[in-house]
Write a structure and sequence with these properties.
- The complex is a heterodimer of chains A (304) and B (162).
- Chain A has 304 residues and is mainly α.
- Chain A is 62% helix and 1% strand.
- Chain A contains eleven helices and two strands, in the order αααααααβααααβ.
- Chain A has a two-stranded antiparallel ribbon.
- By secondary structure, chain B is mainly α.
- Chain B is globular, with a radius of gyration of 17 Å.
- The chains are: A mainly alpha (304), B mainly alpha (162).
Amino acid sequence: MSERKPNSERLSEALDNRRPADDDVRNELETARAVRRAARPELAEASVGRIHRRALARLRQNRRPQRFSGGLALRWAAALIIVALLIAAGTGTVAASSGSLPGEPLYPVKRFAEQAQLALTPASARPSLHLKFAEKRLDEIEKLAAAGLIRTEALDNLAAETEALLAETQSLPADKQAEIYSAIISLTEHQQSVLERVRARAPAAAQAGLAHAQEASAKGKKIALEAIQKIKSTPPGQLKKTSEPSLAAPSTPQAASTHEPPGKQHTPPGQVKTPPGQQSTPPGKQDTPAGQGHGNNSGSKGKP
Amino acid sequence: MLYRAYVQPIYRYMLLRVGDPAQAEDLAAEVFLRVVDGMPRYQRRGLPFGAWLFRIARDRVTDHYRRAARRPTSRLDDTLPADDPGPHWSAETAETHEELYAAMRQLTDEQREVIQFRFIEEWSLETTARAMNKSVNAVKALQHRALNALHRKMKEANSGRR
């Protein structure tokens, strides 16, 4: 005689239509279905952006004192970590990681080395470094696409690097800003042409993520263009650092939609959905092999 | 990154607690500002991020009601413009949604949370367990009680209308 499954399991199976509902889970099933059927209210995109800008502004505000008090100590700590890494692993691991791609075991080592490099770089030189890293992120997307993969992590990294670049540029003196903003315009144009090329061959399931990455890149370009115009139109004696964060939360296809039917929810690749517990690859956001779409993500699937 | 993953669940969490979309937005914003302020402390603790985030959200709601008891509520400085459409929901689903949320507001905090995480956000048992800082078995038991309690509340609401 087979063992009777627990209530929660029988409920999940009935919810996913994998089995008929037993009498003792019928009420639960009916209620769970009613909850799933009901609308999922979402914050308007403008509100999402507004909260994001406030959080970014607070983040910058919180970081400022560290540059004077703990900045030096942090840099020394980072330098010591690098030395320890080099001694412990030889130059082999770090060097071997330089060609790694998102999703590969050595990729976190590569990113860590970059972060350490950033920590050791004076603020005035950080935008140039971010520019270099943003180019690397684009190169990674191209290499993955050549291998038939679109990884959401890679698309997110590109947007984050461009965002960091714009944020760091704002803290430069205005005359230096113009130079970096020009480079950002070229960079984002290149990003868009590469993303367009990748998108032309990408499967349907990766389209939304790529479109989102293109949109974020276009926003970056727009910000850089506007900043340059502002700098040009300001008399030289009045040039000063900009202070307001300017890159709003990228618009997500999901946030724009109101509600998807239960059992048909689908996280478009490119959307960031890091789950509770800090998992790095949310279900519904797995790598998309070229030529394959996402399966229907129904039931209790650990969505975020 | 984390912001984009959690902003809508946190907003819905607040909406379930306070009922008013504008207040829910303000409270969601407060949560993320607290997250930014508390990030250095969080890194030293090791609680799952989701659990930490929703703990902040619970504290914000408690503070909100405490403030409301002392004086009339006021919105944060960054208010919604008058023409802001607020949360998106369609007219035909609004009634069902509002009835459901009203019934859910009568549940205990934990029951409401488990229903939101499991059936609105559609998180797995494991993800829900992490967000609630509970074991999977505890979440299963809580889900069972919560669904039955909600079923009763909805039934009561339906019979009250007739």
